[in-house]
Amino acid sequence: MRIILTRSASQAGGLEEGLREAGFELAHLPLTRQVLPQETTEITAALSALGSGAFSWILLTSGNTVRFLRQAGWDSTVPPQTHIGVVGPGTARVLAEVTGLRPTWMPQDHSAAGILAELPAPAAGQRLLLPQSARAEPTLAHRLRQQGWEVTRVSVYDTVDLAHPDTSLLRAGDVVLITSSSAAEVWARLQPPEVTVLAIGEPTADTLSRRGHPATAVLPEPTAAGVLAALRGD
What we know:
By secondary structure, this protein is an alpha/beta fold. It has helices at about 15-20, 40-50, 65-70, 90-100, 110-120, 140-145, 180-185, 200-210, 225-230; strands at about 1-5, 25-30, 30-35, 55-60, 85, 125-135, 150-160, 175-180, 195-200, 215-220. Strands 2-1-8-9-10 form a 5-stranded parallel β-sheet, with helices on both faces. A 5-stranded mixed β-sheet has the order 3-7-6-4-5. The longest helix has 11 residues, at about 40-50.
């Protein structure tokens, strides 16, 4: 069985490593690419405020967020009193690789829902820096504000569709792992052979369903164990 990941090999991480250890053949079929915003003034200002201790927390929700903060000029400076929250192990791994930093907090449920359920309640006036994709839904920032956080949300990268993904590598019987809602949008425009489609996260699955291409199964988090469970029908 071969698994196709709809992201570039440069974004490979623990998921790919776990799948190879489980004996799967892997290939990558990028459907999108990530780019820095044309204007980075907002990011630069937020990073300066972070370094000066203006934020009690920085909350990182993806490995791409970490990579593009670095590209935007982040020198990994985080004051000792500032908590570093990450959504899950994959983001923590990229954080360590790119910056040498370790998170001080991670939810047991590695999702936005887990963050909202498990993040400690803020003290009055506590500020939280939330760098995200320009395409990220505003729900997380909105709900954090409802919980009492003073949230500064900045867009640190954008996602653009690839006009002509190379679908020639696809074969009937492949398992295709749709890794994001933006990738799901592109996938819905293609005419692939008969494959099994797995979606990472409910937002990705919702996008596929809206576009008339429902996933066979949904992974709550991007792990090899999740893929194996989905293929078994657990």
